[in-house]
Amino acid sequence: MKIGVLAPADIALRRFMPALAEIHELDFAGVAVHSSDERFGSEVPAPAIVAATMENEANRAQQFIAEYGGDIYPSYEAMVSAPDIDAIYIPLPPGLHAYWGKEVLLAGKHLFMEKPFTTSASETRELLALAQARKLAVQENYMFAYHAQLEAINKIIASGAIGDPRLIRIDFGFPRRSQNDFRYDKTLGGGALLDAGGYPLRYATMLLGPSAKVMSASSSYGTGTDVDLYGAAMLTNDQGACAQIAFGMDNSYRCDLNVWGSTGTLTSSRILTAPEGFVPSATITNAGGSESVELPADDAFRKSIEAFLEFVANPADRMRRYEEIQHQADLVESFRSQSGVAI
Asked: Has 115 been annotated as catalytic?
């Protein structure tokens, strides 16, 4: 089975390609660069800017080919329509996901989409309906969800080490980036909710279960930008369990889990971003004192690709995947409506 990469994005070269190289069931077909029309549309800037942009895109694509082989496709459309490609990975900014995701599915190819799947619940529903009608597998790449440390933490909680969980707290944020980053461009799907908030929302759902819903939410825009910079929410499920989340892209770095139980507390950091080879840990505090427990290292990106392959091979699993992706999109939509974040 052959997979192509739609755009020589940094995350594709830095994370996707090393993980893909470990998976023998998938062959790398190549990387697509945008054509001038795909990049600029009708608003074409000065020729010098066009030339520099196209040259930069070509140079980045050449890095892929030099290290991993494959071909350079002269446009996104050329890759989407290529008859020998079975699946496509899209690492584009979120605002472009719905359009190119639809093109991939219409071309009869399986879709591995970088998170978030789209920027709205309605766009997500349209793509998932198309995938189901075309009998195609899809994946939304919240790769942390496949890291072995999550299962290890679940086992600790189930063991009764902290009693019955009373409150879950998940925080994820990072410092402000350069102003030309797509995260600060509303037209490209920027904003903290879509870029950072999806992580704790996804993990809260995994801990609370499919009945998880947003009860309250707030967002802040700061000054000098039209995208949200940080936010927080309370979620609950049908059993009354609660999770608090906070996130931001104008914050000091934090990536923490805190589970407050009836007899103790479990805390862990790097819960959403542990890279390959990193050995995470958890601290358990109860009446017996405080203990640090080593958690398993893992390659979550590779495992996300392997999960995608399972959805390709086993059509019976695809409906569960469709439902998970739609639930995530609905939670984001619910957060947006309660906090006033505009699309």
From this structure: yes
Q: Contact, 6 vs 113, CB < 8 A?
A: no
CATH architecture of 2-143: 3-Layer(aba) Sandwich (3.40)
Domain boundaries, the chain: 2-143, 145-303+331-339
Share of the chain above pLDDT 70, in %: 100
The beta-strand segments (E) located in the chain are 2-6, 27-32, 71-73, 87-90, 110-114, 138-141, 165-173, 213-220, 230-236, 242-248, 254-261, 264-269, 281-286, 289-294
The string of pLDDT tens digits covering residues 56-114 is 999 999 999 999 999 999 999 999 999 999 999 999 999 999 999 999 999 999 999 99
Of residues 115, 155, 186, 213, which has the active-site annotation? 115
145-303+331-339 CATH: 3.30.360.10
Which pair of tokens denotes residue 149?
């440390």
**Residues facing 90 on adjacent strands:** 113
- Residue 159 has, within 13 A of its CA and on its CB side, a CA count of 11
Instruction: Answer left, alpha or beta for residue 194, where phi above 0 means left and psi between -120 and 50 means alpha.
Output: alpha
Q: What is the pTM of this model?
A: 0.94
